[in-house]
Each structure stands twice: as structure tokens, then as C-alpha cells.
Amino acid sequence: MTRTRDEELLLEAVALAQRGRTWVEPNPRVGAIASRAGVVVGSGWHETFGGPHAEVTALAEARGRGERPDTVHVTLEPCSTPQGSAGKKTPPCTEALRAAGVRRVVFGAADPDPRHAGRAAAELRAAGIAVEGPLLPGECGALLGPFQRGLALDRPWTLAKWAMTLDGKIATVTGSSRWVSGEESRRRAHALRASCDAVVVGWRTVEADDPELTVRHVPGRQPVRVVVDPEAAIDDDCRLLRTARAHPLWLLVAEDADAAVCGRLADAGARVVHCPRRALRRLDLASAWRELRARGMRRVLVEGGGGLVAELLAARCVDQLVAFVAPKLVGGRAAPTPVGGDGFASMDQALRVADLHVAASGEDLLVDGYLQD
User: Fold this and answer.
1) Which residues are 369's β-sheet partners?
2) Final residue before a domain boundary, out of 144, 173, 194
3) How far is CA 11 from CA 7, 15, 45, 140, 141, in A?
4) Which of 53, 153, 324, 366 is in the most buried spot, having the most CB atoms within 10 Å?
5) Are residues 234 and 347 in the same domain?
6) 8 Å CB contact between 326 and 366
7) Does the annotation mark 311 as catalytic?
8) Considering the entire predicted model, what is its pTM?
9) Contacts of 335 (CB under 8 A, 6+ apart)
10) DSSP label at 348?
11) pLDDT digits 0-9 by tens, 121-172
12) Model confidence over 264-282: pLDDT tens digits?
């Protein structure tokens, strides 16, 4: 099949967009190509949640080369929503395209959000810019599955991340877990933290590992640190609480947690968020996750432990899995695994992971995929 030049450039943009996988959800994966007289002068993709959009990156690359592109090919209809509206973190790409003097925009797929579909095209045409599309709705629309899922959520997009040995252990029988994965995987894990609004652990993980949950191995913003702590049992001397005034710390506690203890934790710098209880030492996590969304959290990273991950899976509050698999064997019948809980009785009950992707991460493997509904 012979492709037109417009289609060829859009397919190049699709390949670029795929580089944003894992880093941008629930935002869409988007790629863009800027050209002048048919010659590519800039390219880009949406690299991380909350970061510059693909069109802006492509235009910036062209500008850095001293070029003024006349056309931009982009896999998705450009965004037109003002910054700050509905939690949007960046200015609308329609403004960037107008400011750059672009005369023609070709997009591959329409925005699936009914609030925005068609709006960008109308704005650009009103500014005298020729707009064509959707030109490749099949190929470009295939990028948008996670984005469409995210549009329907009333809670944050949730990634569950862990590092495990090849035999599926996240620690030894004695609890030793430093370090399961290699240096490159730890760097990527910190980059994942920096791409999220919050990083979440359970109270047992705090008790066992005394983590700090800060972004250290890469430059980037510090997410809110969140502990699921139904009984407000966090140790006063743990590193999270000691650093609560330097780095935000939220504690999700039961509505009937001891008021005096909660007051002491608040005085130490933690934000105490009361949530409905499901059972002893258990929160109603579906309600708790809706509360996180109501407080502005759109993308959260859960780093364990296995009990919390199992509860979130049961509550249908996990969208994406990211696992670093190290070439190590530790054995041990009682050694902890990434997903705890009671488990399923039969294999046909197992949760399915779709669109699986495997890549090298230093000496480890990085495996990620999306939970099927």
C-alpha cells in the first residue's frame, strides 16, 4: 500500500508517541513532527505526565535549529483546554501552534474526550491555520486505550510497581530487600516517582523498611508521600514523619482512628486524611482513592507491600503494572511476593494483564502492562 507523505509523517509520529508508554498515563501518548516545505525540522513526543506536549517539544526542537516550520503532523487533535482547567498542567497546544506561525496542522485521531473533540480544529481554523484530520484514526487511535480508560475514572490512574527476583520474591525470608534490582532499575523507579502526583505504601512497609520515598536518583519533582495507615499506627520516629515538614506526607486513616494520635501526627507535619473503614486495619480503598482524586491526585504510584497491592487489585483500583525483574533467585516458602492477600482458588479467576511490554533495564527486565477490566 502506497502511503502519502502526510500518512508517512503521522506514522513516524506514532512511533515517537510509543516512547511515552508508562510515563504519561492517564494522559495520552502523542507524537508530533514539525516540517518546513516537507522537510522534517523538529520532532517530539509527550515524555512524562505533566510535562510538555509533543507539539511543543517538536516546535522547540525546530526553534533550536533556527527553523520556522510551516506544518505540524500530530497523532492526536491538539489540546485546547486552558492551563489549570480540570487539573491541566500545561498551556494549550493551540496557542503554541499559533505563536510559532504554523500554517497547516494534520492530526491522526480526534480527541476522545467529548468536551474537547473538534474544538482545537475550530480554533485553529479561526486563526487562519489549515487543519486536516482525523487522517489515520485507526493507527493513531490505537494509542489512546489508556487515555480513554482514564477519562472514565473517578479516582487516580494507579500504577503498581515492584522489584522482584526471577523466582517472584520481593525480599528474602528475613525481610532483606536492598537491593533486589540493579542501579538502572532504581534510577527508573525514581523517575517513575517523579512522574506521579503521589507515591503510596502501606503501613506494614513503613514498619518493615522505614522508607523515605523521595526522588533522589534523578532530577524531578517530589510527589506527595502517602501511607495507608488505618489505625494511625505510624512510628513517630520513622523517616517519613521526621521529614514531613520538608516533603509532603499524607496519612490515610480510618474515620474512627484515635483523635489524639491523629492530632499528634498533624502537629508533626503530616496531613491526616480520614477515610471510611472496611474492617480492622482495613480501609475502604475505593472510597479512599476517590478522596485522593478529589484532592487533586490524577496519577499515583503504589510501591507496596503485597498486602496493599492485593487489596487495591480487589477494589479494582489498579490500572497499570510495572515490574523490575532481577536475575536472582532467593527461594524461601515464606519469602514475600509482590501480591499478597488470599489469592484466587482457580486459575480461571486470575486477573489478566493486557498489552504487555518487556524491555531491558540494565541487568534486569522491565515488564509493564495494563489491567483488563
Assistant:
1) 321
2) 144
3) 6, 6, 13, 8, 12
4) 53
5) yes
6) no
7) no
8) 0.93
9) 169, 171, 172, 173
10) G
11) 999 999 999 999 999 999 999 999 999 999 999 999 999 999 999 999 999 9
12) 999 999 999 999 999 988 9
